Amino acid sequence: MLHHLTNLLMSKEILLIPILILILLEVKHRIRPISPLKLHFHSWKLTRINRDLIIRGLLEIANPHKYMEVMVPEFKISPTLLSNNKLDGIRVRSNVVLNEASKETHRKDSYWTNNIVKGHKAAQVELEMTMTTINNYNISSLWIEIYWVNYGPFGYLCRREGVLLPLSHPPLTLSKQAYWHKDENFQTLPVRTHLLGPLDDPSSVIQYYAGHLLEPGDIIAIGETPLAIMQGRFHHPTMVQVSGMARTLCRFFHPTSSLATAVGLQTLIDIVGPSRVILAWILGITAKILGIRGVFYRLAGNQARLIDDLTGTTPPYDQTLVLGPRHSQRICDQLSREFNISIAVVDVNDLGKVKILAQSRLYNDTILRRALKSNPAGNANEQTPLVLIRPILNCNS
């Protein structure tokens, strides 16, 4: 009897070991050293003087932490023009100024003075770029990469972020000139826009590019990746601190998966935590041996399917990881009330798979799935984040 009781206690202790390991992994993940600083993009203004286009912007370095003070010893920008044409003969000059309240610390040159951002405080940064052209170039956007350093209790962190500033807009699709893809039950119209970025919002984009086309009963499908980009949910791989766990487990995913790289999988770990990922991985491997696929993605959460690794999106975001959007249902409801039509956030690929992340006022999603099965928006550089779907009356859908 005593021997049986001893064996039982030992078996319970053995079971506790993996639980303790998962708890330790989760605690280590939660208390890992990270910088609290956030970069927010504010007002931008474009002014043309003769052959010069002057672009002025305001950034805010915010510190939401209550106590921690963080230094910013370096802050540089690298502007890149995006166009379908050659850009010979264009010169871009840039300047970065810390907008200090004290005149004593303000410098007239472009030297960046080390700045301390205290807890619950923010520092403002003024950017100015002057683009000099010889001819009239068709330049679509300006991609501004920001290289900056955070220094504090977490160490010395080099960060790399970016913002896209549209310099021109494609012509609007007029009702009489619109080329609809027709089916017996519906017709679809991919809506072309400028390259989207964190300075855009879904409501303004829909209003500008599709507002004049909308009719009662229409459906607007928004791509989940463009929506996430407008929310600023993308980051450069250098922003991710890869763990040994990510380097090991990523090798077991299909090579085409966005989780097949250490940075891609670490991005998921940073979102949902290491314990959930490792449990989903163990159960997923077990289920796969038994012939059941997709268990990992169901257990690891929606972001496991929505993360796009490098090259998964349109330039310049092809060099970043793009996450899935936030608050998709709330956005659908808000846009549906604003435009009085049905709104859906979707994830579509060229294989005919249609995933509806959220929908509002859509009582029957059969037409939506049929209309998007051929992926009318495309997966290349079409710049068609919106698809307008118009059901045909008196149809059996």
SSE arrangement:
Blueprint: H1 2-30, E1 38-49, E2 52-63, E3 70-82, E4 91-98, E5 115-117, E6 121-132, E7 141-152, E8 155-166, E9 181-182, E10 186-191, H2 202-210, E11 219-223, H3 224-230, E12 234-235, H4 244-249, H5 262-272, H6 274-289, H7 295-300, H8 303-306, E13 321-322, H9 328-339, E14 342-348, E15 354-360, H10 366-372, E16 386-391
Parallel strand pairs: 11-14
Antiparallel strand pairs: 1-2, 2-6, 3-5, 3-7, 4-6, 7-8, 9-10, 10-16, 11-16, 12-13, 14-15
Helix pairs in contact: 5-6
Keywords: Plastid
Organism: Paulinella micropora
Protein name: F420-0:Gamma-glutamyl ligase
Can you give keywords for this protein?
397 residues; alpha+beta; Immunoglobulin-like; 60s Ribosomal Protein L30, Chain: A; 6-stranded mixed sheet; 4-stranded antiparallel sheet; 10 helices; 27% helix; plastid; F420-0:Gamma-glutamyl ligase
Q: Quick gist of this model?
A:
The chain has ten helices and 16 strands. It is an alpha+beta fold and 397 residues long.
Strand content: 25-35%
Q: Are there runs of 5+ residues with pLDDT below 50, and where?
A: none
The general outline is: flat
Rounded to an integer in angstroms, the radius of gyration calculated over CA atoms is: 25 Å
By CATH, the superfamily of the largest domain comes out as Gamma-adaptin ear (GAE) domain
Keywords: Plastid
Organism: Paulinella micropora
Protein name: F420-0:Gamma-glutamyl ligase
